[in-house]
Specification:
single chain; alpha+beta; Alpha-Beta Plaits; 2 domains; two-stranded antiparallel ribbon; 5 helices
């Protein structure tokens, strides 16, 4: 989408476009970052940040995406490699006995695990085993294209906290609870966040114990993670990229 929109601005040379973080189909982004190298024809002044923002948004109009800000950066800047950290939020909805009870405005924006409530203290205990620097091979997708890549990553933050719904009309759904799993790292493995959240929810459901999470981590084998411990993409949001 970015590439096609930028090409409609009539650059004088092919555009080089790079995004900081790629997301699976069905995953959302509240904020992402990208950079592009765009040249205008001779005699044309370089785009200002505001001109680029307005021009790109005009051509992105049919798509569910918007540029929030744009600015000039040094040629040494790279949206992917200069990022200091990335923060993801996974939204959970508790209290739904059936998927039909998910509020209409929340559909495809959260995960409502079956079985009602979750043991949040047990999930928080399990999360402690994931914090810090580890080999996260168990939490890497079986279908990763980078199997030779190191699976060592450092989780800077992993919090499980209550959260509001996207709409404030809670009196319509008093029995529902929203929770967020907030995860921060410089970089993540393919589907790492969804697999970690799935495992934590399994702990909350009593299918796994907190100690199982430590054992799974130590196995360093993606095949060791139970098939049910995989969160769907709908609840995952890239919240921010820090530079």
């Amino acid at each position: 989408w970015f590439q096609k929109a930028a090409e409609k601005l009539r650059p004088s040379a092919p555009i080089k476009f790079h995004i900081s973080s790629r997301t699976d189909s069905g995953v959302h982004a509240l904020a992402n970052a990208a950079h592009l190298d765009i040249q205008r024809p001779p005699g044309k002044a370089a785009f200002t940040g505001q001109q680029l923002l307005q021009g790109l948004n005009h051509h992105l109009k049919p798509e569910p995406i918007r540029i929030l800000s744009a600015q000039r950066v040094p040629s040494t800047f790279h949206a992917r490699f200069c990022a200091l950290s990335r923060t993801y939020i996974y939204r959970l909805l508790l209290g739904c006995a059936h998927h039909s009870q998910i509020p209409v405005f929340e559909r495809d924006l959260c995960w409502a695990p079956a079985g009602g409530s979750l043991d949040i203290p047990a999930m928080r205990e399990a999360a402690k085993f994931l914090l810090g620097t580890h080999d996260f091979s168990t939490f890497r997708s079986l279908h990763s294209n980078n199997r030779g890549q190191s699976a060592v990553r450092t989780l800077l933050q992993l919090q499980i906290q209550p959260a509001p719904g996207f709409l404030s009309h809670h009196y319509l759904h008093r029995d529902l609870e929203y929770w967020e799993v907030k995860v921060k790292s410089k970089a993540f493995l393919y589907r790492q966040v969804r697999r970690m959240v799935g495992a934590l929810v399994a702990v909350g459901q009593g299918k796994l114990s907190p100690r199982h999470i430590q054992e799974l981590l130590q196995l360093r084998d993606a095949r060791a993670l139970p098939a049910y411990a995989m969160a769907p993409p709908s609840g995952l949001f890239l919240a921010s990229v820090e530079f």
